[in-house]
Amino acid sequence: MPTHAISTRLAWEPGPFTPSLSSDQVHVWRFHLDDQASETCQRLRSWLSAEECTRADRFHRVRDRQRFLIGRGALRDLLGRYVGLLPQDLRFATGPFGKPRLEQPNDSAIQFNLSHSHGHGVIAVSKGRELGIDIEMMRPMENMDAIANRFFAVGEHSTYLAQPEALRPLAFFRVWTRKEAYLKATGTGISVPLDSFEVTVDPGDPPAIRHVADQPDEAARWSMREFWPQADALVSLAVEGQGWATYGYDYSPRDSC
Q: Which of 92, 28, 31 is nearest to 67 (CA)?
């Protein structure tokens, strides 16, 4: 696993079946979307709603369909453990820009966010704190400089270009995951221009929101963490407020319901 001074080191442990979560904790679950046994995929699919199954079936490639249903099934399984319901009994609603939230039970303070990249997934869960998580596999991208020039804020772009060429991929994915995590936490998604807010980039700076255009107090509302669930997978986590600790778990589906 990479050694980065600013990264949070998580001791990944087998996840408890009945997790206990306090308001000063954030739980992050990691799991694989590929190479799952067919019976596991069938069990996870059985927990989905009719609408989720329809969405899964719209994917033409079997791999993409499987990744979708495993991600949604894992999310239902885990949230059910936190609120004491069966996965299939959960009901979801969406915000104005599509961010999902628990509707049933509607008195739950549980917040969550799901992200996946190239067969690897993470789910973050909190109690009473908005949050967003993003995972990206570190990989070469020929158009990296062009993407940075188009979407990064001015300060981010200049710091990115100042990095030695060998360190630019890490700088790029740090910016990208931090921006995605923040947008997912706020629930605004692509409705907000990526260059309208700035995150830290320099290798010596801890992950953070530097500033948000026309919102002078917004950056102080959030705190961020960076960690590596595996050697080539970078995760950024944005959470509302300060003073929270992160715990990492390995997800295994329940055997039955």
A: 31
For residue 255, the model assigns a pLDDT of 83
What six digits make up the tokens of 93? 């609603």
d(CA 257, CA 252): 14
Instruction: Write b or e for each residue in 182-195: b if 16 or more Cβ atoms lie within 10 A of its Cβ, otherwise e.
Output: bbbbbbeeeebebb
> What DSSP character marks residue 8?
P
Query: Which burial class, exposed, middle or buried, applies to 94 when counting CB atoms under 10 A from its CB (0-12, 13-18, 19+)?
Result: exposed
Q: What pTM value is reported for the model?
A: 0.95
Q: Sign of torsion, CA 197 238 228 140?
A: negative
> Model confidence at 105, in pLDDT bands (50, 70, 90)?
confident
**DSSP structural state of residue 130:** -
Residue 246 to residues 4, 119, 227: CA-CA distances in angstroms? 17, 23, 10
User: What pLDDT, on a 0 to 100 scale, did the predictor assign at position 35?
Assistant: 78
Residue 40: strand, helix, or coil = helix
Virtual torsion, Cα 46, 47, 50, 56, nearest 10 deg = -80
Q: In the structure, what pLDDT confidence band is assigned to residue 3 with cuts at 50, 70 and 90?
A: very low
Q: What 3-state class would DSSP assign to 153?
A: coil
Nearest to 113 by CA among 63, 83, 84, 71: 71
| Rounded average pLDDT over 246-257 | 89
